[in-house]
Write a structure and sequence with these properties.
This protein is an alpha+beta fold and 142 residues long. It has four helices and ten strands. It has a single domain, classed as 2,3-Dihydroxybiphenyl 1,2-Dioxygenase, domain 1, CATH 3.10.180.10.
Length: 142
């Protein structure tokens, strides 16, 4: 699946969660996922979340606060949500997954993602494909 690159928590209050950890956060409020580029449980998705990204060493930490709409984040609720991998062949990894629960892309930003069940470990696994521009943004944050 490639190297583990991220651990994510869903939180009820992103501001409080950011203050609780001594990490330099990149906070992006009101990230909108629309039906043209995201699905949740096989249906077009329409939801908004606040996101914060930071690093602990080489590990990316992500906080997500649901704002409105149904998504895998509201379904699961607060707590550890997922770990993420960047498979060498994103399309093949997604095609081989027994189930894709939520997936989409950020056109113009250069990121594709798919959430699959974590199997016997529980939680979720996010498969990611990042553009060179997105990698640069993350490297600068690190």
């Amino acid at each position: 699946m490639g190297p583990l690159t991220q651990v994510c928590w869903v939180v009820d209050d992103i501001e409080t969660a950011m203050k609780a950890h001594d990490v330099r956060w990149m906070h992006v409020p009101d990230v909108a996922f629309g039906p043209d580029y995201c699905t949740y449980r096989g249906r077009p998705a329409d939801f908004v979340v606040h996101v914060a990204i930071g690093y602990s060493g080489a590990m990316q930490l992500e906080l997500i606060q649901p704002v409105r709409g149904e998504s895998l984040y509201t379904e699961t609720g607060a707590g550890l949500h997922h770990v993420a991998w960047e498979p060498e062949d994103f399309d093949a990894a997604v095609a081989a997954a027994p189930e894709v629960v939520q997936q989409g892309s950020f056109p113009g930003v250069g990121m594709d993602f798919a959430y699959v069940p974590g199997g016997p470990l529980g939680s979720w696994v996010e498969l990611m494909r990042l553009s060179p521009d997105m990698r640069t943004i993350f490297e600068r944050l690190r």
